[in-house]
Every structure is written in structure tokens, then in C-alpha cells.
Design a protein that fits this description.
By secondary structure, the protein is an alpha+beta fold. It has two domains: 44-61 and 86-180, no CATH class; 207-341, no CATH class. It is 37% helix and 15% strand. Strand 10 and strand 11 (283-288) form a beta hairpin. The protein starts with a helix and ends in a 9-residue tail after the last helix. This is Lipoprotein.
């Protein structure tokens, strides 16, 4: 009897799931390539279209890509379905880290960003493959957990880029780009490149990245906690004298009071901010945020593209304790070379 039930079930399943050729045939006229960039009026519109036709890279300044109409509603109005680019899209899930952004309305800033990308980013992209940038979303301000985006406040820091999503690469700081000097602008372009380079290194050279991270803690006592734990930390500063007192001297042995370059970083993860200690009005509680490992690595990847060895060294001229930064960049330069060789790229530095 059970064999009869099994045979009957298989027949029903086949009837329900089978389809003919007409069911699966797609009408090419109804399939929309949302990542194609049409030629739109204006200097920016023409430039984005030209770049797409020449490189295949889609650059967006709006997260809404377009819409399709499918019938009308009860009021006789067209029913529209809008397509947006997803900055959180992964293949089998979505990005777990918080990310938000504010779109730009400044066409001059957009043009400067696009021209910078065309000048410095495109010549350094792999010719094809997974680690070639497919699309970019340029935004006014990008807020992520890695930078100041998890504690929104006046004066908080915004992110350069977001590296996780596979559908598009969000790129921030268009709010600042018009006022960037050339070294900062080069670093911005380097951060755009760093997204795919870091992902490749994380997949193919994870042991080498561990060596890079260990260089951060190389001048700490062995029993000290890693500086990467300082993703959000604080210390005291006396209001009258300016004397600084570390919060956890038994954990970091004074490293909490170091500047970011003394730690081996190229920037803080957020702008420093202070509040009066509610338990002692004679001192400030100073809040700082050290970089996450991914952002730290991406900073150094960007510096490899943006500066020559001599230029980078000159950035720290007269700065005490800067040797760690110089050595970490030289090590990262070797890893960037590995990426370029593996992905068919002839590295073209910006200098």
C-alpha cells in the first residue's frame, strides 16, 4: 500500500512542479538591467554614461535606480515598483553591521569624486573577476559602526567606504571632497581601491594580515591587552592642568594615552570628544575610538596607492614614535603587490 501512496505522491509532485519551455522563457524586452547607466542630460550624466560604456563600472549618486509600471490601481493610477541598490546585500544573507548614509545634492562634489575615480581608481582595477569593482554608490556622508556612525552626534566622524556588500561599494565624504587637499584626495581614492584589496587579502593572505596586526602591539608588554580592544575607550584629563590619566593602566600600561600614530594607526575611528566627569568636576572624561582591524588594514592599503615611500615618510617628519607606521606600510606594500600579481594588475601609484 505504501508503494502506491509513494507513486501517487511522486506523480502529484511532478505535475505541480513541472513546467514547459514557455513557462521559463523570458521576454528580453521585459528584463531591466538596473545597473546599466543611461545617458542623461548634463555634464555628470554624460560622464557617468561614458564611464559605464568604457569600463563596465556603474557609478550611482542615488540609491533609487528606477521603476517599472505594472497595471493600475483602483484609482486608475499606475502601479510602480521601484528598484533600489542594496548596500547591505550579500549572496545568502545581509550585512549584519549597521550602515546608513545621506545622499549628496552637490553636483560639483559628485563631479570631483567621479573625475578622481576615473583618474586614479580605474587604472588600478583588475581587468575582470570577483575583485574588480562592479558599481559604486557615491554619498554625502557614510555612517558605519567602524567609524562614528554608531553614536551619531555633532562632530562625529563619517566613514570613507564600506567594503562588505557585493552589490555595490558605498563611498562617502562627498560632503568634504571639495575642500580636500591633494594628499587627502589621493587617500580617498586609495580607500576606494582598498575595499576589494582587503577582501582578497582576508581570503587569501589571512596569516600575513595577522602579522600586520601584531605589528600594532609590537611595542607593548606581552601581558598588555591588544590595542584593537580600544574600539571605544576613555581616559581622564584634568581641566586645570591638562594632565592625562589612563583608565586601565593594568591593561594597557599607559597606551591609552598614546596618539593614534604612536599606536600604529593612521587615524582615529571617531573624533575625540569630552564630558565632565559626573563624579569629579575637576576633570574631563575623554572619549576616543581606535580603528577596527579591517579599517586599519584598509588605511594602509590606501596609503600604498596614494604615496611613495618618501612621501609617506615625509608625512611624519619630526613626529616622534612614527617608525611603527612607516614599517607597517612597507609590510602592507608587499601584500598589495601580491594582490596585483594574483589579479593581473599593473599597480599604478598616484604619485
Amino acid at each position: 500500500m505504501w508503494k502506491s501512496y509513494l507513486l501517487y505522491s511522486l506523480c502529484v509532485f511532478t505535475l505541480l512542479t513541472s513546467c514547459n519551455e514557455e513557462d521559463i522563457k523570458l521576454d528580453a524586452s521585459t528584463v531591466v538591467d538596473w545597473f546599466a547607466v543611461p545617458d542623461r542630460p548634463g555634464e555628470l550624466g554624460h560622464l557617468l554614461h561614458k564611464i559605464y560604456k568604457e569600463t563596465g563600472v556603474s557609478i550611482f549618486v542615488n540609491d533609487t535606480l528606477g521603476y517599472v509600471e505594472d497595471g493600475i490601481d483602483a484609482n486608475g493610477e499606475p502601479v510602480r515598483f521601484y528598484e533600489t541598490v542594496s548596500e547591505k546585500y550579500l549572496l545568502y544573507s545581509s550585512v549584519s553591521r549597521d550602515i546608513r548614509f545621506v545622499l549628496s545634492r552637490d553636483t560639483v562634489a559628485m563631479l570631483k569624486a567621479v573625475n578622481t575615480i576615473e583618474k586614479w581608481v580605474f587604472p588600478n582595477l583588475p581587468p575582470s573577476g570577483k575583485y574588480r569593482i562592479k558599481s559604486l554608490l557615491l554619498v554625502d556622508s557614510l555612517l558605519t559602526e567602524d567609524y562614528g556612525g554608531d553614536t551619531i552626534r555633532k562632530g562625529g566622524k563619517t566613514a570613507w567606504v564600506f567594503e562588505e556588500s557585493i552589490e555595490t561599494t558605498p563611498v562617502g565624504k562627498l560632503a568634504d571632497i571639495k575642500n580636500m587637499d591633494e594628499p587627502t584626495l589621493k587617500f580617498w581614492a586609495g580607500m576606494v581601491l582598498s575595499t576589494k584589496v582587503y577582501n582578497w587579502l582576508n581570503s587569501h593572505c589571512s596569516d600575513s594580515l595577522k602579522v600586520f596586526y601584531k605589528m600594532t602591539n609590537s611595542d607593548l608588554p606581552k601581558k598588555a591587552r591588544t590595542l584593537y580592544n580600544l574600539h571605544g575607550y576613555k581616559f581622564y584629563r584634568m581641566i586645570d592642568t591638562g594632565e592625562e590619566i589612563d583608565w586601565n593602566p593594568d591593561w594597557y600600561f599607559g597606551a591609552e594615552l598614546w596618539d593614534y600614530w604612536r599606536m600604529g594607526f593612521l587615524e582615529w575611528g571617531d573624533a575625540e570628544w569630552c564630558e565632565i566627569d559626573p563624579k569629579d568636576s575637576s576633570r574631563w572624561i575623554v572619549h576616543r575610538k581606535a580603528l577596527e582591524k579591517s579599517c586599519d588594514a584598509m588605511n594602509y592599503i590606501a596609503s600604498v596607492y596614494a604615496f611613495s615611500d618618501e612621501e609617506f615618510k615625509n608625512l611624519f617628519a619630526g613626529v616622534e614614535y612614527s617608525e611603527k607606521c612607516i614599517q607597517r606600510r612597507l609590510y602592507m606594500k608587499k601584500l598589495v603587490d601580491l594582490f596585483c600579481k594574483a589579479n593581473g594588475v599593473t599597480c599604478q601609484s598616484f604619485h
